C-alpha cells in the first residue's frame, strides 16, 4: 500500500463548539490505484484530503488521532520541515478553482520553474526545458510561447492544465484531485478526465479524486469510498458501489445523479 | 501588475512625475548647474537681491542662494527617499509577518503600532535628535523609525485579504515555505498600495526634515538643506524676501509633486 490512513480524526473548534469533520476514517490507496471519494459538500472529504499532509489550518482544526502511513512513514508524526518536501513533492494537489489558483502577477513559466526548483535539484536552464516539456505533456499547444503568458491570458481549461503540470512537475507518487473539473464545462471535464487517465498510466500515479459527483468519479476510479458527516459509510470497487450499493446513503447519492444514459437515448 | 495606459493618465500625475524627475536630475547634477560654491562666504556680497550674477540673490553671509538651493535639493531628496526607505523596509517586514501568522504575533505587533502612534511624532523626533545628534544618516534613520506604522497596517491588511486567495493556498499546498510565499507571492501582489504610500511618504518626510531643520534640529548647518535655508532667512525676513520665498517654493513644489503623483497612482491602482 502506498497510503494507509488509519482512524484519522480531525476536529474543528468554533465558538466553543467541537465538530468532527473527519471521524475515524480509514482508507487505503495502492500503488497506481485511483480511489474516488464522494459525498455531499460539508461531508469532510476536502478536509480528509488536506489532513493527509497536515494542511488543515491548526487552529481552528486539530488532528485528534490516527495515522497516515505514506511510503513507510507516518506523516502526522514527521517534523514540519519534512512536510514541505512531501507537499507538492511526493504528494501533489489539484484544486477546483484554476482561475484563482495561479499568482496573477507572475508568468505561467516562472511559476512552473519555481515549482521545479522547489522540489528537484535541476539547474535553471534544465528547469526551463522541463517546464516547457511539462506544458506540452498536459496538452497545452505552443508550450514555449505560453511560458511567458500571464494567468489572465489563459482560458479556464488551460489554467487547470497548468495546475496539473505544476502538480506533476515533481513526479509525485500520489495526486489528490479535489473537484478538479467542477469549475469547468462538460467538454472540458471530458478533456481533463482523459488527461488525468493518461498521466495516471504514464507515470504510474496513484490518484485520490474527490468530488460530489459520482458521475465524475466513476470515470476515473478503481474503487469508490463514500463519505457522510465525517464518516466513511461505504467503500468498494467502482462496479460494486455503483450496481450494488450497500448503504442507504449511497443509494440516495446515486439516485440524485442525472440519468445521462436515459437522456442520450431520447436525443 | 496593472498596465499603465498613458493616454488616460490625467494631467496632474504627469506634472507631478515631470517635476520629480527634473528635481532628481537637478539634485544629481548640482555641481554642474551651480554658479557658485554653495558654502563660500562673501560678506561684501551679503543680502543682494536677485541679479544676473546671483540669480536668486544671496543670504546674510553672502552665499549664493541659487547654488545653495541646488545642493539643498540633494539633501532634502536624500532624506525623503532614505527615510521612507527605512520606514517601508520595517513596515513591509512587520506587516507581512503580522498578516501571515496572525494570532498572538499579530496582536503583539499591532499593539506595538498602536503604542507608536500614541506618541506625538514630531516631539518624539525632537527628543531623539537631541539625544543622538544631527547627522544626515541619523535624521534619515529617525524619520524612518517613527514613520513605519502606516505601512505596517497597510501591508497587514493587504496580506489578510490575499492569504485567503486560492493561489496563496495553492503555494502552501505546493510545499512552499512561509518566507518564500511572503516574499515571492504576497509582496508582489501587495505592491500597488506600497508604491502609493512610498510616494506620499517621501513628500511628508521632506516636510518633516524641513520642520526639524527650521527648529535647528535637522541637518547640521552649514550643509544646505531646504529647511536650513529657511532658518538662515529668519533674521532677515523683512528685508530679503528672496531668502524665504525660493526655498519655501522649492519645498512646496516638491511636496506637491509627490502628493500629485501619489494620489494619481492611488486612483489608478484603485480602479484596476
Quick recap:
Chain A has 267 residues and is an alpha/beta fold.
Descriptive notes:
- The complex is a heterodimer of chains A (267) and B (272).
- Chain A is built from eleven helices and ten strands.
- Chain A has 267 residues and is α/β, with parallel strands linked by helices.
- Chain A has two domains: 3-90 and 174-266, P-loop containing nucleotide triphosphate hydrolases (Rossmann fold, 3-Layer(aba) Sandwich), CATH 3.40.50; 99-169, no CATH class.
- Chain A has a six-stranded mixed sheet with strand order 6-7-8-3-9-10, sandwiched between helices. A four-stranded antiparallel sheet of chain A has the order 2-1-4-5, covered by helices on one side.
- The radius of gyration of chain A is 19 Å and the shape is globular.
- The model of chain A has no long low-confidence stretch (mean pLDDT 85).
- Chain B is mainly α.
- Chain B has helices spanning 11-28, 30-33, 65-101, 103-118, 121-132, 136-145, 149-162, 166-173, 178-189, 191-214, 226-233, 241-271.
- Chain B has twelve helices and no strands.
- Chain B has one domain: MetI-like (MetI-like fold).
- Chain B is elongated.
- The interface between A and B is medium-sized, with 26 and 18 residues.
Amino acid at each position: 500500500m502506498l497510503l494507509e490512513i488509519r482512524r484519522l480524526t480531525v476536529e474543528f473548534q468554533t465558538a466553543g463548539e467541537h465538530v468532527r469533520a473527519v471521524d475515524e476514517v480509514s482508507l487505503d490507496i495502492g500503488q497506481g490505484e485511483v480511489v474516488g471519494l464522494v459525498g455531499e459538500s460539508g461531508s469532510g472529504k476536502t478536509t480528509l484530503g488536506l489532513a493527509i499532509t497536515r494542511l488543515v489550518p491548526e487552529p481552528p482544526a486539530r488532528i485528534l488521532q490516527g495515522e497516515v502511513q505514506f511510503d513507510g512513514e507516518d506523516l502526522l508524526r514527521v517534523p514540519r520541515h519534512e512536510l514541505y518536501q512531501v507537499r507538492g513533492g511526493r504528494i501533489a494537489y489539484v484544486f477546483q478553482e484554476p482561475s484563482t489558483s495561479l499568482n496573477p502577477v507572475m508568468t505561467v513559466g516562472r511559476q512552473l520553474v519555481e515549482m521545479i526548483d522547489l522540489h528537484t535539484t535541476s539547474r535553471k536552464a534544465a528547469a526551463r526545458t522541463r517546464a516547457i516539456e511539462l506544458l506540452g505533456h498536459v496538452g497545452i499547444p505552443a508550450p514555449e510561447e505560453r511560458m511567458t503568458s500571464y494567468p489572465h491570458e489563459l482560458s479556464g481549461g488551460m489554467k487547470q492544465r497548468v495546475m496539473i503540470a505544476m502538480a506533476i512537475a515533481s513526479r509525485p507518487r500520489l495526486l489528490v484531485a479535489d473537484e478538479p473539473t467542477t469549475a469547468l464545462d462538460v467538454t472540458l471535464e471530458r478533456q481533463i478526465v482523459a488527461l488525468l487517465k493518461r498521466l495516471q498510466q504514464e507515470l504510474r500515479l496513484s490518484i485520490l479524486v474527490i468530488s460530489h459527483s459520482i458521475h465524475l468519479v466513476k470515470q476515473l476510479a478503481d474503487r469508490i469510498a463514500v463519505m457522510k458527516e465525517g464518516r466513511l459509510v461505504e467503500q468498494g470497487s467502482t462496479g460494486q458501489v455503483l450496481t450494488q450499493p450497500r448503504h442507504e446513503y449511497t443509494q440516495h447519492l446515486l439516485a440524485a445523479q442525472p440519468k445521462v444514459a436515459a437522456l442520450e437515448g431520447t436525443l | 501588475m496593472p498596465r499603465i495606459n498613458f493616454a488616460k493618465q490625467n494631467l496632474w500625475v504627469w506634472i507631478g512625475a515631470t517635476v520629480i524627475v527634473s528635481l532628481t536630475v537637478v539634485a544629481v547634477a548640482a555641481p554642474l548647474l551651480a554658479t557658485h560654491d554653495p558654502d563660500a562666504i562673501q560678506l561684501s556680497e551679503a543680502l543682494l537681491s536677485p541679479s544676473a550674477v546671483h540669480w536668486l540673490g544671496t543670504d546674510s553671509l553672502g552665499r549664493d542662494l541659487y547654488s545653495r538651493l541646488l545642493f539643498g535639493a540633494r539633501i532634502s531628496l536624500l532624506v525623503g527617499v532614505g527615510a521612507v526607505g527605512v520606514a517601508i523596509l520595517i513596515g513591509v517586514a512587520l506587516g507581512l509577518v503580522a498578516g501571515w501568522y496572525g494570532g498572538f504575533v499579530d496582536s503583539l505587533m499591532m499593539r506595538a503600532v498602536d503604542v507608536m502612534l500614541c506618541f506625538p511624532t514630531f516631539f518624539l523626533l525632537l527628543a531623539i535628535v537631541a539625544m543622538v545628534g544631527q547627522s544626515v544618516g541619523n535624521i534619515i534613520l529617525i524619520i524612518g523609525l517613527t514613520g513605519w506604522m502606516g505601512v505596517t497596517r497597510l501591508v497587514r491588511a493587504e496580506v489578510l485579504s490575499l492569504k485567503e486567495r486560492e493561489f496563496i493556498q495553492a503555494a502552501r499546498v505546493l510545499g512552499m515555505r512561509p518566507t518564500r510565499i511572503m516574499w515571492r507571492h504576497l509582496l508582489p501582489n501587495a505592491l500597488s498600495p506600497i508604491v502609493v504610500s512610498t510616494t506620499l511618504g517621501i513628500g511628508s518626510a521632506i516636510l518633516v526634515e524641513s520642520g526639524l531643520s527650521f527648529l535647528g534640529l535637522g541637518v547640521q548647518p552649514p550643509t544646505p538643506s531646504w529647511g536650513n535655508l529657511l532658518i538662515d532667512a529668519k533674521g532677515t525676513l523683512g528685508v530679503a524676501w528672496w531668502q524665504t520665498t525660493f526655498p519655501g517654493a522649492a519645498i512646496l513644489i516638491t511636496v506637491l509633486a509627490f502628493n500629485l503623483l501619489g494620489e494619481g497612482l492611488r486612483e489608478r491602482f484603485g480602479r484596476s
